[in-house]
Amino acid sequence: MILIFAEMMGASAGLGYFIKLYAEYANYTNVVAGIIMVGLVITILNKGVNILEKMLSNGDET
Fold first, then answer.
1. Does the pLDDT at position 40 exceed 60?
2. Alpha carbon 9 to chain centroid distance?
3. What was the pLDDT predicted at 5?
4. Rounded average pLDDT over 44-49
5. Cβ-proximal residues to 14 (8 Å cutoff; 6+ apart), any chain
6. Torsions phi, psi of 24, nearest 5?
7. 31, 48, 57, 60: which sits with the fewest CB atoms below 10 Å from its CB?
């Protein structure tokens, strides 16, 4: 998850770009909002993968 966030910071579009852009302008309200959005997106994706994993597994946990 940290790697995903780190890669986003080098982007030229998207949430990573949004955070980087507003950090350069010292608009920290938008920076914090962007970081919260990244956290929400990662959390939702993580929950989705966990649900999909449970649906596709046979219930065998090794």
1. yes
2. 11
3. 67
4. 94
5. 8
6. -65, -30
7. 60
Structure tokens belonging to residue 41: 């997106």
- Calpha distance 41→54 (Å, rounded): 20
Q: Give the pair of three-digit tokens for residue 9.
A: 């910071």
Three-class DSSP category at 44: helix
The whole-number average pLDDT for the span 27-55 is 92
DSSP 3-state of 39: helix
For residue 12, pLDDT beyond 60:
yes
Across 14-49, b (16+ Cβ under 10 Å) vs e yields: ebbebbbebeeeeeeeebeebeeebeeeeeeeeeee
3-state secondary structure 2-33: HHHHHHHCCCCCCHHHHHHHHHHCCCHHHHHH
